[in-house]
From TrEMBL:
InterPro entries: ARM-like, ARM-type_fold, Vac14, VAC14_Fig4p-bd. Gene3D superfamilies: Leucine-rich Repeat Variant (1.25.10.10). This is Protein VAC14 homolog. Residues 436-447 have a biased composition (Polar residues). Forms pentamers. Component of the PI(3,5)P2 regulatory complex/PAS complex, at least composed of PIKFYVE, FIG4 and VAC14. VAC14 nucleates the assembly of the complex and serves as a scaffold by pentamerizing into a star-shaped structure, which can bind a single copy each of PIKFYVE and FIG4 and coordinates their activities. Interacts with NOS1. GO terms for biological process: phosphatidylinositol biosynthetic process. Scaffold protein component of the PI(3,5)P2 regulatory complex which regulates both the synthesis and turnover of phosphatidylinositol 3,5-bisphosphate (PtdIns(3,5)P2). Pentamerizes into a star-shaped structure and nucleates the assembly of the complex. The pentamer binds a single copy each of PIKFYVE and FIG4 and coordinates both PIKfyve kinase activity and FIG4 phosphatase activity, being required to maintain normal levels of phosphatidylinositol 3-phosphate (PtdIns(3)P) and phosphatidylinositol 5-phosphate (PtdIns(5)P). Belongs to the VAC14 family.
Length: 712
């Protein structure tokens, strides 16, 4: 091309005629089948633009549209000519201050969704040029083209991906420089969708943008929390050894930054006025309405439900009204991820941390959702990971101890979708909440309620025991671990008090016996319960006597544990009376095994004080009698030998007498507490054991009946 260098100046009339007389006919030739005609048309248009220069800007859209088609032309000559014209047009736009960006954006938004590699390269090159012009503020229109840019980032061509990375990087720099003018809310949902894509580069880039948005926009991003969590939480379970470990790191920063945005001020229950209520748009509003829009994240039970619709709020409403945290969507996302057994351990831990954080920062709002969360939190106790169980127990402990849970009715849920069944949270009627107020208790009742525990504490204990009953493996493998941790997180006395109270009404004697044995082992061996053991040792206070009575009544489900409780509380005379009753019980292999374990426990440091009391034979005759009683119950076994050797070490009381002890008045055994009716407790023991015997005989009878039916 070799156009003349000197031309006459263009008049306004000539400029107006350019489109109809020159540009439009030439552009029509761009669609001709003959490649030579297309090339000559390109050459002709180059000459026109070269002469007219800034005068062609009013016709920029039609020129751009024609050039975008030539960019993908199969003929190399046509393509070369279009590139020359393209560079000329870019120079004119760069030099001019009259470029109409507003009218160009709709065309750019349309063309950016092209799947053609050359067309994409053409689009990206123009965005780079427009972004470099100081007088053109393309950042204001970024929400219109951001989704298309992320789709181009997934192009198969390495060069195009690199160009798109550069464009997105430049935009992000501009956002960091001047965040006050950025329309964060209009782009939040676009990022949410691309954070869930399967393309590593798109996902990492979108996640990096999300990280910056959360840090720069702050609470403006709160209305999109559920969508952000839907995108971020699964990434936390990525394998560190794989290439997507970078995504995991960025996702973790996003998660932590978003969590920090939730403050105690978000716990305000005042509803927004109708004019201020933030509306949730349909999924169609999440992105520009163009063909080829991203369809969302990868397939998955959680992702498909929350990819765009659940968390989106219109940007305009976010700017008009103060940001209000609505927990419906957030809780639903957290519940979904916690319920999904395929979710990785780190994601489950992150979900539980979120729940704990929300219960700490927004307890009143969260207690509206407790009934729907409670079953899945109980189910999570069966998780394989100790760390998950620990976090789960922290959440449950916070629910059980939070002052916000004191009310019986925590209020309606924020949304209808979260109204779940309350079957997991049934509570005994008030008449059954405490121990039967019989004359034997002498006014002592075993009510589990305390000022530090709310109404959910007792519900938690009931449902935890239900879960142990229905899932015996959980009790066997995780039971001691769970109960010990709860004793650290909550009040140990309250836990044992309430569990004993509930077990008192347990309809399955076998489970009650198993559970009592587990609780007793924890009570006697766990370091976490040192203070509780000391409290029970002397029974000096009314509270300790109350606790002993409550534990005793449930401990009666297991004869040997009842004796060990008496040893712990130094009720040696009553222990001896109980052992005397063992002659009337059905002695089984399991029974003898428990006696064997009790003998082993007596040799442990916990019962050091008991062994030292054997030196004071005169004042502890019933202790020695009780130990001899256990010895007589045992067959000739290692436990028999162990206890026998211990009793052989008991000194002769006459040999221990000194001159001072002869002069001193004889000391009596530790006086029984006047508040405890031991005779009534012994009757209760007999009653419970008779019930156990009756149940065993009934089961045995059913077995015999079935055997007879088989024979017939």
């Amino acid at each position: 091309m070799n156009p003349e260098k000197d031309f006459a100046p263009l008049t306004p009339n000539i400029v107006r005629a350019l489109n109809d007389k020159l540009i439009e006919p030439v552009l029509t030739c761009f669609n001709d089948a003959d490649s030579r005609l297309r090339y000559y048309a390109c050459e002709a248009l180059y000459n026109i633009v070269k002469v007219a220069r800034g005068a062609v800007l009013p016709h920029f859209n039609v020129l751009f549209d024609g050039l975008s088609k030539l960019a993908a032309d199969p003929d190399p000559n046509v393509k070369s000519g279009s590139e020359l014209l393209d560079r000329l047009l870019k120079d004119i736009v760069t030099e001019s201050n009259k470029f109409d960006l507003v009218s160009f954006i709709p065309l750019l938004r349309e063309r950016i969704y092209s799947n053609n590699q050359y067309a994409r390269q053409f689009i990206i090159s123009w965005i780079l040029v427009l972004e470099s012009v100081p007088d053109i503020n393309l950042l204001d229109y970024l929400p219109e083209i951001l989704d298309g840019l992320f789709q181009i980032l997934g192009d198969n061509g390495k060069e195009i991906r690199k160009m798109c990375e550069v464009v997105l990087g430049e935009f992000l720099k501009e956002i960091k420089k001047n965040p006050s003018s950025v329309k964060f809310a209009e782009m939040a949902n676009i990022l949410v969708i691309h954070c869930q894509t399967t393309d590593d580069l798109i996902q990492l880039t979108a996640m990096c943008w999300m990280r910056e948005f959360i840090q720069l926009a702050g609470r403006v991003m709160l209305p999109y929390s559920s969508g952000i969590l839907t995108a971020v939480l699964p990434c936390l379970a990525y394998d560190d050894r794989k290439k997507n470990s970078g995504i995991k790191e960025v996702a973790n920063v996003c998660n932590q930054s978003l969590m920090k945005l939730v403050t105690p001020e978000d716990d305000e229950l005042d509803e927004l006025r109708p004019g201020q209520r933030q509306a949730e748009p349909t999924p169609d509003d999440a992105l520009p309405k163009q063909e080829g829009t991203a369809s969302g994240g990868p397939d998955g039970s959680c992702d498909s439900s929350f990819s765009s619709g659940i968390s989106v709020f219109t940007a305009a409403s976010t700017e008009r009204a103060p940001v209000t945290l609505h927990l419906d969507g957030i809780v639903q996302v957290l519940n979904c991820h916690l319920s999904d057994t395929a979710i990785g351990m780190m994601t489950r831990i992150a979900v539980l941390k979120w729940l704990y954080h929300l219960y700490i920062k927004t307890p009143r709002k969260m207690f509206r959702h407790t009934d729907s969360l409670f079953p899945i939190l109980l189910q999570t106790l069966s998780d394989e990971s100790d760390e998950v169980i620990l976090k789960d127990l922290e959440v449950l402990a916070e629910i059980a101890s939070s002052p916000a849970g004191q009310t019986d009715d925590p209020g309606p849920l924020d949304g209808p979708d979260l109204q779940a069944s309350h079957s997991e949270l049934q509570v005994p009627t008030p008449g059954r909440a405490g121990l039967p107020n019989t004359s034997g208790t002498k006014g002592l009742e075993c009510s589990p309620s305390t000022p530090t525990m709310n109404s959910y504490f007792y519900k938690f204990m009931i449902n935890l025991l239900k879960r142990f009953s229905s899932e015996r493996k959980l009790l066997e493998v995780r039971g001691p671990f769970i109960i010990r941790q709860l004793c650290l997180l909550l009040n140990a006395e309250n836990i044992f008090h309430s569990m004993a109270d509930i077990l008192l009404r347990e309809e399955d004697p076998k489970f009650a016996s198993t559970m009592v044995h587990a609780l007793n082992t924890i009570l006697l061996t766990s370091t976490e319960l040192f203070q509780l053991r000391n409290q029970l040792k002397d029974l000096k206070t009314l509270e300790s006597q109350n606790l002993f009575c409550c534990l005793y009544r449930s401990w009666c489900h297991n004869p040997v544990t009842t004796v060990s409780l008496c040893f712990l509380t130094q009720n040696y005379r009553h222990a001896y009376d109980l052992i005397q009753k063992f002659g009337d019980l059905e002695v089984t292999v399991d029974f003898l095994a428990e006696v064997d374990k009790l003998v082993q426990l007596i040799e442990c440091p916990i019962f050091t004080y008991l062994r030292l009391q054997l030196l004071d034979v005169k004042n502890n005759p019933y202790l020695i009698k009780a130990l001899y009683g256990l010895l007589m119950l045992l067959p000739q076994s290692s436990a028999f030998q162990l206890l026998s050797h211990r009793l052989q070490c008991v000194p002769n009381p006459e040999l221990l007498q000194t001159e001072d002890s002869l002069k001193a008045a004889p000391k009596s055994q530790k006086a029984d507490s006047p508040s405890i009716d031991y005779a009534e407790l012994l009757q209760h023991f007999e009653k419970v054991q008779n019930k156990h015997l009756e149940v065993r005989h009934q089961r045995s009878g059913r077995g015999d009946h079935l055997d007879r039916r088989v024979v017939l």
